[in-house]
Specification:
alpha/beta, 13 helices, 19 strands, binds N-(aminocarbonyl)-beta-alanine, binds zinc ion
């Protein structure tokens, strides 16, 4: 199947939906850009795609992936080729991946290495955040160079002691420098020192199974870390955000911080909206089947069921601004099963392909969020926050023709063999889904047609991010 290039295309009869409105309209695009939207009739020779009964949506923006990441002595199962193929099939046209500066590297070395990993392999457009695994004083100056190279968001870890965790004074220095550079920092909010103490306690008791991972990372440690971060960022009035927010009590902290005028925004992930800690089993039985539980070893871990409603409310009410998957895929066989105790299991789970359909099914179809809010949290807010709007994240004349045609009628059941990633499982196996990604256009190229990926996918382009805009809800 070949992708469409060049000429004018009309998407007709669909419900054109952005973060602010839905209307029956046609969308015309040419040369990779949207030309006009409205009550349009086909021009002679124009290609027409019938979108009746379907939603016409901005292509999704994935705010959180780890592709080709070296971690825990191994490397993620998905690289930029397989990870972005999977994303595209699921309606995501731009992926913001976590480039990583490893110990001893300069910041730009991290950025350059990620360009090498992505270039020629990615089939979505892509940008980077830069995760800093340490803080060094010279980074204060290097940040400006990173921002000039189109990477305007950084990440720091308040957990993972002895490998990536940073201290409060380093957080202060980094936020001060990122403010001056016109950037933001996303924080992994968990108190790494207390986690470390809890891990040692469990291991000393001979508790080595995957079940004990979550016992060492209670939600209070996420809330505490965010509270501490908010206090530090407040001294500087600095842009910052919390990645993969997982607990209801942390949303209260975000809400209070925003009410105080803090420039904080929040990202959550489908796993925290849909999966709960019953999947780990109970202490009485030392947890569920070990391999089964290992697939849910991620940080932060899955939470008690009452958190899920709180997260959905936070998403609907504007306390959480976007949903990224934290796609960090490790095979159960050959990777997660190799660890000798829970503290050594590679952390993370896959999910990049199902973000759209899970959010549509359990958000929109379940009437927890409106379809306009769906667009806000899957595309527009990320585009605004990471300085890609209005090129990405919306449907406006002049925007890139990154468009998803979503048919809300079919029902299907998730089975891993239908997905396009390179890992051996999905945490969503057996889930019922409402609707499907029917067509995807990436800068006007018809890359998914009637649910099938084109076999001559075009190369994704690097997108330079601009200054963060935290004025989103
Ligand atoms: O378990 C997770 N989330 N692994 C990926 C790394 C991170 O902390 O985002
Ligand atoms: Zn993290
Ligand atoms: Zn992550």
């Amino acid at each position: 199947m070949s992708v469409l290039h060049g000429g004018s295309v009309l998407l007709s009869g669909g419900m054109v939906t952005t973060a602010t409105q839905s209307r029956l309209a046609a969308v015309r695009f040419a040369d990779g850009r949207i030309v006009e939207i409205g009550d349009l009739t086909p021009k002679p020779g124009e290609a027409v795609v019938d979108c009746s009964e379907c939603l016409v949506l901005p292509g999704g923006i994935e705010t959180h992936s780890h592709l080709d990441l070296e971690a825990a002595g191994t490397v993620t199962a998905d690289d930029f080729a397989t990870g972005t193929r999977s994303a595209l099939a699921g309606g995501t046209t731009t992926v913001l991946d976590f480039a990583t500066q490893f110990h001893g590297e300069s910041l730009m070395e991290g950025v350059r290495r990620w360009h090498e990993k992505a270039r020629g392999k990615a089939v979505t457009d892509y940008g980077f955040h830069l995760a800093m695994t340490q803080w060094r004083t010279e980074f204060a100056d290097e940040m400006a160079e990173v921002v000039a190279a189109g990477v305007t968001s950084f990440k720091m870890y308040m957990a993972y002691r002895d490998s990536m965790m940073v201290d409060d004074d380093e957080i202060y220095a980094a936020l001060s420098a990122s403010s001056r550079a016109g950037a933001t920092i996303g924080f992994h909010c968990e108190n790494g020192l207390v986690i470390d103490a809890l891990v040692r306690e469990e291991l000393d008791l001979g508790h080595t199974g995957a079940f004990y991972h979550q016992r060492t990372r209670p939600p209070a440690l996420e809330r505490e870390a965010l509270g501490r971060l908010s206090m530090i960022a407040g001294l500087l009035d600095a842009q910052h955000y919390i990645v993969h927010l997982s607990a209801g009590e942390t949303i209260d902290e975000v809400r209070r911080a925003r009410q105080r005028g803090s420039k904080v925004v929040a990202e959550t992930c489908p796993q925290y909206l849909l999966l709960d800690d019953s999947l780990y089993g109970t202490a009485e039985s030392d947890g569920n089947d070990e391999l089964e539980v290992r697939q849910y070893v991620m940080s932060p871990p899955l939470r008690a069921p009452e958190n899920l409603d709180a997260l959905w409310s936070g998403l609907a009410d504007g306390d959480i601004q976007f949903v990224g998957t934290d796609h960090c895929s490790f095979n159960l066989h050959g990777q997660k099963d190799q660890a000798t105790d829970f503290a050594r299991i590679p952390n993370g789970a896959p999910g990049i392909e199902l973000r759209f359909s899970l959010l549509y099914t359990y958000g929109v179809a379940a009437e927890r969020i409106s379809v306009e809010r769906f667009v806000a949290v899957t595309a527009e807010n990320a585009a605004r926050y990471f300085g890609l709007y209005p090129r990405k994240g919306t449907l406006l004349p002049g925007s890139d023709a990154d468009i998803v045609v979503y048919d809300p009628r079919p029902r299907w059941t998730v089975s891993h063999d239908q997905l396009h990633d390179n890992v051996d499982h999905t945490p969503y196996e057996g889930r019922q889904i409402q609707g499907r990604v029917r067509d995807v256009f990436l800068r006007g190229q018809h890359v998914v047609r009637d649910g099938v990926l084109a076999d001559d996918l075009a190369r994704g382009e690097f997108v330079a991010c601009g200054p963060p805009d935290s004025d989103i809800r």
